[in-house]
């Protein structure tokens, strides 16, 4: 039976950016390309640049990158589809990523993710009806000593619980100020993409804001330097939490 078989139609060329948008992006692209000895090396920040325009990497954005860098659209598409940091469909102002890798998962990451799916009425990689939140599970935020960790537009929210994560997304949707545990203040996903393209973050205090590793991470560093940790991070079996080692 062939009634459900469709040969399809060739995809039309991607529409061009409006003239004023193209002119602005072209100027930004020149600044990016000038940083590299080989223009094709500029592809990753260029993809962030076009993502900052529409909130995701469109066919128009990929065509612009290909034309500007002298690449084929297939080469650009291969890179854009390889990295999960490039969104392939419209997404929210705030990308909320819940770590569900082993440690975060057992410390509560799985519970947080399930609670947020129900609370926001979305599934993985889906966006709320108001366009504010895109929820996704991600693999390892490289912050295991703060597990479970949630990231919003790549800023850290450490030691989360289902209740704190739900309060955080509610505040974001309501337009209330939300402060990361460490790092720069939050901005929208489009603004984040422009910063990742290599353009300065000109918000007052944003560059100065920072955050370091937690005590559990630094124990290994101190041991490697021959230093003795000041106290145990994990207490041996049988000891109470108030007892410290030598």
UniProtKB/TrEMBL annotation:
Entry keywords, A to Z: 2Fe-2S, Iron, Iron-sulfur, Metal-binding, Oxidoreductase
SUPFAM superfamilies: Thioredoxin-like (SSF52833)
CDD domains xref list: TRX_Fd_NuoE
Listed cofactors: [2Fe-2S] cluster
Domain of life where this protein originates: Bacteria
EC number: 1.6.5.9
Any Pfam family hit: 2Fe-2S_thioredx
Gene Ontology MF, one: NADH dehydrogenase (quinone) (non-electrogenic) activity
Region (Disordered): 226-246
Family assignment from sequence similarity: Belongs to the complex I 24 kDa subunit family.
PANTHER family (alphabetical): NADH DEHYDROGENASE [UBIQUINONE] FLAVOPROTEIN 2, MITOCHONDRIAL, NADH DEHYDROGENASE UBIQUINONE FLAVOPROTEIN 2, MITOCHONDRIAL
Name used for this protein in its record: NADH-quinone oxidoreductase subunit NuoE
Name of the encoding gene: nuoE
